[in-house]
Amino acid sequence: MKMRNVWIVIALALETASATAQPQQPRPGTEAETGTEAETGAEAETGAEAETGAETETGTGTGTETEAKSEAESKVATETEATAADEQAIAGELAALEAEAPPPPPPSAPAGSNALNPAISANGLVLVGGASEEPRREGDLDTGIHLQEIELRFSATVDPYFRADLTLAAHDDEVGFEEAYLSTLEIPHLTIRAGQIFAAVGRHNLLHTHAFPFLTAPHASRALLGPEGLRDPGVSFDLLVPVPFFLELNAQVFRGEWLPFQGEPEEESEAAAEEMVEDDGHAHEAIEDLREDHDFVYVGHLKSLFELGEDATLELGGSYAGGRNGFGERTDVVGADLTVKWRPLAAERYTGIDWSSEYLWVRRGGAHEDDRVGGAFSGLRYQFHQRFWVQARGGMLGLPDDDSPRSYRAEGLLAFIPSEFSGLRLQYAYETSEESAFPDVHEVFLQALFSIGPHPPHDY
Amino acid sequence: MGSRASRIAHVVLLSLGICLTLGSVARADLRVVTTTTDLADLARAVGGEHVEVESICKGEQDPHYVQARPSYMVKLSRADLLISVGLDLEVAWLPSLVRGARNPAINPGKPGHLEASRAIKPIEVVGGAVDRSKGDIHPRGNPHYWLDPHNGKAIARLIAARMKQLDPEHGADYEANLERFIGQLDAAIARWQRRMAPLRGKRVVSYHATFNYFIQRFGLQQSGYVESKPGIPPAPAHLAQLIVQMRKERVGTILHEAYHDRGASNLVAKRSGAAVLELPTSVGGARGVSSYIALIDHLVARTARALGGR
Predict the structure, then answer these.
(1) Domain A119-452 = CATH 3.40.50.11540
(2) Does any CB of chain A come closer than 8 Å to the CB of residue B75?
(3) What is the pLDDT along chain B (310 residues), one digit of tens a residue?
(4) Domains plus CATH for chain B?
(5) Which residue from A170, A426, B29, B176 puts its CA 20 to 30 A from A296's CA?
């Protein structure tokens, strides 16, 4: 009886699958394929059978066959029927399983209750140094020893359809989620993320603190977007546009409790945007807020990347964020960025040059006579040894020419990286402002950084 | 009105169907992306005319240390099958590329995501408690297994089985291509064994643990490494110790991967009286190394020449 043979083959396939799956317990962080694959393989079989099975059953269903069927059903509950095509597919499965090495590799960690835990990693940043002046705005470095940040990351696939990434950051006395979101895995070309996410405005705003190229975010972006950058609960649609080069479109919606969307305290309305930040801490009560709960901030971001030969890439980005602000009028945030990277393929570990520039512009409707402020920064990194690189960055606030006073900041950094998991970075910064009230600032800081847990990704 | 609407719907559906059919006719039966050029060559050998194969790494590149360029996501977004080396070789860059590709067919656990390491038995699996004081270790075993030609056979078999599973229509062709390739490889292995047989037991030092499978297959002996620990650049004390050991054991050859800095290897060679043998580790890593068999040919010929001279 052909039918019976088919069921034996199925049972055998399932048995082989579970036998292969058992000794190699899936571990988060590694891709223990054997287990999951055997499962999905079996699923695919049942699916195909359910579709094609019904036709053949009505055509050829005889007494003996239904007997065979009920017998088999007790073994494999969800099965219905099988066809010759399935037999071929199963033979393929079996061949695929047999092609694997006979003794499965020993599991790298003792399996057990830890087997399904998420991948956990931690980053730490410790700062020592001094500045010639008291901090002017939130996020400025202060003389002394600081635990700049401890970041805990948890990530795991939730089920076959979703993945979750949580990044918990602690600095000073505050603990909060830097990012915490759910993302889809099964939609072609598109990832939908929901949760606490970074707004895709410019390039630097998407970086976690431990990945900042310098010790702090650029002063222009801190003044324009706020000391924490733009991140909030929201939903993000990230589309990889199906064209021959890299083109990504992000469409995002946020609650948007951000500096550019806040109102201003009445008595401070003459102040420039950067002073706003300084006053942020103690002037909250005075802020008149006309934003309603249903006012959202909408963000659009387009990023493209082109290969310039084998060793270099050019990345261009443009972003816009808009929504109703605390004055009841519209705020527009516009960003543009350009990054060129040169990494000779045969010596990526030893040398490379990155050059990244960004321009940000904010218009807050309703602020005194339409408050428009722009800022820009440009940074260069040159790696000259497996363990060393130097960096320089210049930035200015008050672009294009407008009434608000300009300020400039220059930073130089030397990094020593013993391994991919630790580093020491020494930074000197100089800041000067056209405002006479603010004297020039000199800063020297040393930062120690570490990463424990799974291998940190080589983000581009 | 209703019939007109349904006619329009028919036309639209029909033209959509034609477009889809044309689209699928125009492309290869299987689009394969591999992480390394070696896997790409094996996939081409097995897939023949039915596959279109692209590799993310270039032959002269260090596969540990690849930048996760978004342009690679574009390649992966169109793939039917992703073949990786596995054993955490690509752990720093492949997962983010796979996520960025937004291609459910190649997500981990899917038939379109094949870790070639499943075909082989890894060596140097680190059991028990592991931590990074030992350097950037691979707890699941040494991932440079493709340099043992017997493993090459096993990988080709695994790839053929997976191609058959994904494209059953051309299963017989994959089978035939595999048989032909295995025949070629077996003949070459016999040749390599003959060439390497007189060198059994000869000692070598290498920069990183890249050649261990090759060394083991041909009965050579690994005396030590130039780098202090995996991924950690050599420290002077370690090099001094290595030089003393090499003099004592009369090690005359340092196998050096072309993508690693030569400074330390040159220094050790000079002080110990050994010679540095710079070798490709992947297809395309040196001139003339255009296929998997040519790669092993090249390694055997150059190693035999270097070791045989002493």
Answers:
(1) no
(2) no
(3) 445 656 666 655 555 444 444 444 446 799 999 999 999 999 999 999 999 999 999 999 999 989 999 999 999 999 999 999 999 999 999 999 999 999 999 999 999 999 999 999 999 998 777 888 888 888 899 999 999 999 999 999 999 999 999 999 999 999 999 999 999 999 999 999 999 999 999 999 999 999 999 999 999 999 999 998 988 888 899 999 999 999 999 999 999 999 999 999 999 999 999 999 999 999 999 999 999 999 999 999 999 999 985 4
(4) 28-124+132-190 (3.40.50.1980), 200-279 (3.40.50.1980)
(5) A170
Q: Between residues 126 and 155 of chain A, which touch chain B (CB distance below 8 Å)?
A: none
φ/ψ of B160, rounded to 5, equals: -60, -45
Question: Phi/psi zone of residue A367: left (φ > 0), alpha (ψ -120 to 50 degrees), beta?
Answer: beta
Question: Coil, strand, or helix at residue A16?
Answer: helix
Helix (H) or strand (E) holding A53: helix A33-60
Residues in A closer than 8 angstroms to B66, CB to CB, are 348, 458
- Residue contact B102–A189, C-beta within 8 A: yes
Q: Which residues of A touch B259 (CB under 8 A)?
A: 346-347, 349
Nearest-by-CA chain B residue for A241 = B74
Compute φ and ψ for A31, nearest 5 degrees.
-105, 80
Shortest CA distance from A191: residue in chain B: B102
CB of A173 closer than 8 Å to CB of A189: no
Q: Closest partner residue to A246 among B73, B118, B136, by Cβ?
A: B73
| Cα–Cα distance, A66 to A71 (Å, whole number) | 8
Chain B contact for A244 (CB, 8 A cutoff): yes
Looking at chain B from residue 101 to 130, which residues have their Cβ under 8 Å from any Cβ of chain A?
Answer: 101-104, 107-111, 113, 115, 117-122, 125-127, 130
| Residue where the block lists tokens 């003959």 | B194
In sign, the C-alpha dihedral spanning A42, B47, A160, B117 is positive
Tally Cβ neighbours within 10 Å of residue A312: 15
Q: A175 - beta bridge partners?
A: A170
Helix (H, G, I), strand (E, B) or coil at A267: helix
Domain spans of chain A, in order of start:
2-98, 119-452
